[in-house]
Amino acid sequence: MAKFTKKFEMYKALQANISNIYADARKAADEIGIPAELRGKFGLTGAVSGCPGPLNKKVRAAIERGTTEVIPLAKLVDEIRSIVKDVYGDDYDAAPVNTCEAGLWVTFDSLFTPPMQGRGESYQARYIMPYEKHLHHHGGYGRPFPGRFKDIIADRGSTAGELGFYGKRQNNLSVYIAPLVGADYSVHGIKYHPAIQLTKVDPEASAKKIKAIAERQASMLTGITSLAYDTPGYGYGVKDSDGVPVLQKRLAEIAKEFNVPYVLDNAWGVPFVGHDISKSGADVIIYSMDKASESPTSGLIIGKEECMVPIRRALGMHGDRYGTTASYGKAAYVTNDPGKEAMLGMIAALKELKDNPDNLKKPVDDMYKIVKEEFDQIHPKIRKGLIISKSYNSRAIEVNYENTWNNEELGFPIFSIEDMYAGTQLLQTGLSQMGVIPTVAYDGNIMISPGLGTTDDDGQIIESNFRYAVKAQVKLMEIVAKYSGYID
Fold first, then answer.
1. For 164-223, how does the pLDDT look when each residue is reduced to its tens digit (9 = 90+)?
2. Cβ(197)–Cβ(183) below 8 Å
3. d(Cα 92, Cα 82) in Å, to the nearest integer?
4. pTM of the model
5. Residue 203 in contact with residue 250, Cβ under 8 Å?
6. Is 320 left (phi over 0), alpha (psi -120 to 50) or beta?
7. Record's InterPro entries (predicted)?
8. 421 and 278 within one domain
9. 149 and 282, same structural domain?
């Protein structure tokens, strides 16, 4: 294939060859030997909202038992609270919700937005977030600042305008998007947009920069937020002796200095086994329990009691007006009710995470071994630029390839998140042609996790199925690299 000297020309060539790439991908699936009965029914992650993995037998059994019992829902909420307090201590509290996004919504509205009641216009409030991956999640609840970020979300999601991501923006709230020191925000993709590349982030210099921003915004600053992830591709590869990403600890310190909450979005994370809020110093952390925790579709908010009081009140869970310790009634965010079966399954998942953490760590170790073995077989030029990391927090293996761009020549194609929403992220759409349900893969980052036809009824890896899926990803990367001119 032709060699290119300009990025846009390389991506233009990829666009022109999409049909050829798909044809080669289908042929490669046959060469790999992916069984016909497996195609379309397995994939590289069970941790995506649109296609969650099947529930394991312990969670299913807990739900089935509970459906035949009469259980006040406030009792289930208190059981969740008790499990969380057993792990993190009595200074922490919890609230279940129906999704992680619901948890972000109620948390930001409870802690970040200005009051709507009282005489006069509401004051302007602002929270700070790093310019990082998934910013349309925890960064989507305020109008972007500075102005150059006004359209940073662009065409993400299924629906445009006020009924899309822009409709999440809350009352008189803005979000200061802070670029990180050492990050690379160069433009990539068939749908040409900035790609957020974070393996070289300097946490100390970034924290110093964010503190300076906080000082300038102090009169309207009401919070700080970030992801709770722990891998290099998300900018959190530098850790302290406790294994806590340094940048997250520094953000917690800045928030404490300015007397505002630090809220962590840990959608693709697990309680207890993963990020330890008591060590990082964050005030609130929010999970999507169905992604990595093997729970039914639901979310969980965990935080320091002071911050959890208004959150639980907004959910109608913090007690009746006449004075009770718990309730399950009407309030502003009653729409975020997770329901009985979701809480039953969540309790079973939390107990497993608390009592048998090794059962959830073992699949990660097994995946890491297989991913390393299969990616050792990839073209040497691609392999040289890979960073492969293991995360118990996300129960995932991260394959990052942004370092293929370290030399003067163009590197392996990086697809933006806008490519993902546009259907031009070839490392995802190409997998679909091979009968493999794709994973989250954009901005030079591929996240691989268990659960979608690759695990047994106990949640352990079925090696043959998982290896087929990884082999497909490896082969597809070589096909895309060939058409981009990166390899011959």
1. 999 999 999 999 999 999 999 999 999 999 999 999 999 999 999 999 999 999 999 999
2. yes
3. 10
4. 0.96
5. yes
6. beta
7. PyrdxlP-dep_Trfase, PyrdxlP-dep_Trfase_major
8. no
9. yes
